[in-house]
Amino acid sequence: MRQLGWKIDLSKCIGCKACMEACKFENNTTLDLRVNYRWVTEVERGRFPQVQRVFVPLACNHCADPACKRSCPTHAITKRASDGIVLIDQEKCVGCQACVMACPYGAPQFNRVTKKVEKCTLCVHRIEAGLGPACAATCVGEAITFGEDFVRWGDPPPEFADPRQTRPSIQFVR
Amino acid sequence: MSWPPVLEGFLRTGEGAPVPAAPPCEGPEDLCGAACAAACPRGVLHFRAGHPEAGAGCDGCGLCAAACPRGALRAPQVERRLRPRPGRRPADHWACSAAAPSSAEVVPCLGALRPERVVWMAHAAGGTLHLESGECARCPLGPASEKARRSLDAVGRLLREAAGREVLVLGPPREARDGSEALDRRAFFRSLAGSDGKGLPAEPAARRILETALKGLLGGRPAPEGLLSLLPSFYAPAVQEDRCSLCGSCALACPAGALSLEETGNGLRLLLAPEACTGCGACAAPCVPGALHLELLPRAEGTQTLAEGPAGLCAECGRRTRRPSRGPVLCPACLHLRRRRASSPFSGYALRA
Asked: What are the residue boundaries of the structural domains of chain A, listed by start?
């Protein structure tokens, strides 16, 4: 099956959060700042004087075996056969947040206005128009790229949840 | 042998195994003479410690449940198909899984429809019920399906006799119907009481209700009140009140509209309308705190209160949820996320203040 996924170059991310901004702008997500389809986490490592700060841009990983899809009681979450994008049907979602608890990456976001759960769609509307996701297009350091040529899972940071659980479609490069 | 796609679905889910219902099974020494085990087309239903138990290979056809004269077995897979759906009138066209694909609703085997169920379905469908079956002789369920079909034919004749017109329209093949001998009503009831019967209720009161329903079909009268209660009892949701967060996800997920969340003075109340509940279990899946589970409950009338308590808005996501006696108001999902974020920096993101 064709599977689109992320390729994240951690050495190139400068933590500018332009991807978050572009995502919010593109998907017109609610003004509630707790709802982010993409977010950038900062991790500090080591002890003085050998310290390191790493920025990790994360979003829904459109897993090969999505835990959210398994948990959804109304079968609102589907995985497209054509490109492996995991989508939430807003008509079917009842907002029970079972997926919020099931996802090891915290990708599903509860929208307190619509009382439903939404998440990254990998900019499915842009992909269908022949473009890439907004975050990848806007990334100044070209740390976020997307496509089919990613290799699971590369070299994930140690804090990243065990990828064998849900087989996320993401590759980390350091 | 290739399985019809629908039946394959049943096999895959493995959820079709019969489960005990409210009137307890009296064991194989009962008058029924282990009718359920005899009806099982796969021969995988056996009595273990006095109770019928389906082994591996059960495809959830529901023939055993239809054969039990006490209504002590339920076929969850069949009942799931039969449950009413919100906003849709009850289907009047049903087909078995071996029938040619059509717009009809599909059950694994039409023989799994008990007579009282057929009468109720005919009422719900507004007088005429179309049942379409495939060729029983070629059915993967084997000769049992043919026997079930003959019994369904008998129900059809009974309905025609009572209503004076064709109420039950059975689809192809017609050869099997022509081959079976005619039955009058008395002989039909006698055959139902016998060991190879389809198990009409034994109590005279229940039979009276069924007869009233049959006569009602003639005059277009609504189904008598007790008809629904004749159907085998269902598993119904039971709530562990101290764990319930009163979020109402169960009510949103309920396809039958049996659960509802009602506002009281300063809180919320979770209500169950037992007559609408089909025991499908859709409510249990979204229950994040795990407070709701299905229990075999005696069929009751009237609305029941499952949980009740003071309510507030979750400090994180704004959902209505139970207000704890002290501490912040947090819904179960946000409480879970808050705990996880504390241990794992990658689980979601919160902007720094």
From this structure: 4-173
Task: Render pLDDT for B73-104 as a digit per residue (tens, 0 to 9).
Answer: 777 767 766 665 555 666 777 777 777 666 67
Best of A35, A92, A110, A162 to disrupt the B interface by mutation (most B CBs within 10 Å)? A110
Structure ipTM? 0.74
**H or E stretch including A40?**
strand A38-47
pLDDT for res B173: 41
Length of chain A in terms of residues written:
174
B260-310 pLDDT per residue, tens: 888 888 888 999 887 677 667 778 877 777 888 877 665 556 788 888 888
DSSP reduced 3-state for A121:
coil
pLDDT, position B140: 66
Evaluate if residue B335 carries a pLDDT over 70: yes
Residues of chain A with C-beta less than 8 angstroms from the C-beta of B253: 73-74, 94, 96
Neighbours of B31 (CB within 10 A): 11
Contact B348, A59 (CB under 8 A): no
B345–chain A Cβ distance below 8 A for any pair: yes
B339 touches chain A (CB under 8 A): no
Listed in sequence order, the DSSP H helices in B142-289 are: 143-163, 175-179, 185-193, 204-219, 227-230, 249-253
Q: Which residue of B has its CA nearest to A76?
A: B253
d(C-alpha B157, C-alpha B150), whole Å = 11
More reliable by pLDDT, B344 or B251: B251
- Which CATH code of 2.170.150.40, 3.20.20.70, 3.30.70.20, 1.20.1250.20 fits the domain covering A4-173? 3.30.70.20
Where does the pLDDT of residue A8 fall: very low under 50, low under 70, confident under 90, or very high at 90 and above? very high
Interface test with B, best of A101, A113, A117, A120 (most B CBs within 10 A): A101
Q: Which residues contact B22 (CB under 8 A, 6 or more apart)?
A: B71, B72, B232, B233, B296, B297, B298, B299
Residue A34: pLDDT above 90? no
Of B216, B207, B205, B217, nearest to B185 (Cα)?
B207
Tell me the H-state helices in chain A.
18-27, 67-71, 98-102, 124-128, 134-138
B337 touches chain A (CB under 8 A): yes
Quickly list DSSP for B116-160: HHHHHHHHHTTS-EEEE---GGG-TTTHHHHHHHHHHHHHHHHHH
- Phi (first) and psi of residue B178, to 5 degrees: -65, -30
Q: Is B319 on the interface with A (CB under 8 A)?
A: yes
CA distance A61 to chain B (A): 12
At position B180, the amino acid (one-letter code) is S
Residue A95 forms contact with B (CB below 8 Å): yes
How much is the pTM?
Answer: 0.52
Q: Which residues pair with A21 in a beta bridge?
A: none
